[in-house]
Amino acid sequence: MLGVSDDRGYELVAEPDEAEVIVVNTCGFIGPAKEESIDAILRMASFKESGSCRKLVVAGCLSQRHPVELADEMPEVDHFLGSSDMLRLSEVLDRDDAARLLVGNPADWVQRASDPRRPSVSRHSAYLKIAEGCNRTCSFCIIPALRGLQRSRTIADLVAEAEQLVASGVVELNLVSQDTIAYGRDRDGDERLAGLVRALAEIPGLRWLRLHYLYPETITDELVELLDAHPRVLPYVDMPLQHASDAMLRRMRRGHGGARMRKLVERLRAKVRGLVFRSAFIVGHPGETDDDFAELCEFVRWAELDHVGVFRYSSEDGTASATMDDAVPPKVANARHRKLLALQRPIARAKNKALVGREIEVLVEGESDESDFVLEGRHAGQAPEIDGKVFLALGPDAPPASRGQIRRARVTAAADYDLVAELIDGPREAGEPSPPRRAIRRAGGVVRLRTVG
Ligand code: SF4
Q1: Which atom, in ligand 1's list, is nearest to the CA of 134?
Q2: pLDDT tens digits, 393-417
């Protein structure tokens, strides 16, 4: 949608009261994300009264999931775009008579390299969506119903998009999809994840390639070798494990038990040097007993993962879990959520403390949100938006830093999730002068794009 608005000559503004068009990109996956999305829509709707907004657009999974109900209940919204209709934002921008509901069938759609694109994370880091949809049947998950069966893009198309991104200054690519490890299995031929990673990693100018959302199944030797040894493939594994008790994994219809997960973790730790392991777990799924939760806690203590996300189960209409008995009371789920996060915190802190005094490579991302006098960035073990940050000071002999540079830095202090480091030598890569943090104005109208969920 950012690419479409660029294409139509619109500019991005920093404040919603300046925007002529406001797009709220929603999530409809779990209850809290839906609530957050609705709050954002209502907040943005107020700018039709108090600001310059003349078109309010709601896009993404929430409007895909409940188009008619939302249209009835939110007369202040001018247009609803489904989760696969982002390119139709051009109709909204170009025409005053565009339809109110622009919600197609997501199963028909997959992104292409020729689609207009502007990375949303930063100019130097981008997500690359390698497939749409999912063929699995996890009992708690509505995504296959929202996004359809898996459709993988071709390696040639993904390399073409990645080359465009790198040519525009991107140095870090983060591969995403609903089920990244299953990339290519829906297509004839032998295009699979390892081949894709190898092809992308060869793009001149790309420095970091990171994999997200690997389903917990055996990673091929070829991919393990790339994670271990390829200089541009980060040894970072983001594998949502969801639970560790056999009974819960069975209820969640994950197709494996806890023993397989232990084997997976052990194998990756043994084979991938410097492995950084991120995972996510659900607590409070129907049927989760105290013993199941104790088993999950024991697993988290044992696995000592680097980054852990914990979600409270959200009952979603249309899923198998929503029909299961033995619901866990919200109070119990909340307590388990707090306990698991508290259990992980000292593990994360100890891992960060072990880095103090060591040299790391950091992607410089610009002035810190905390203070204009401090820079911030991420090291290879920190994914954008979900992991911690590195706050950066200039060392005595270090030349000034620019956004998009990958620089060496020495870690001087560690908190639970973030690090403080001092830049210690010159640029590894040419960056660009750090632009002001305010959004850059360009010719045309005004768009305020806001991402939620
Ligand atoms: S693999 Fe992920 S997206 Fe697919 S059904 Fe399971 S949880 Fe949902």
Answers
A1: 4
A2: 888 888 888 899 999 999 999 998 8
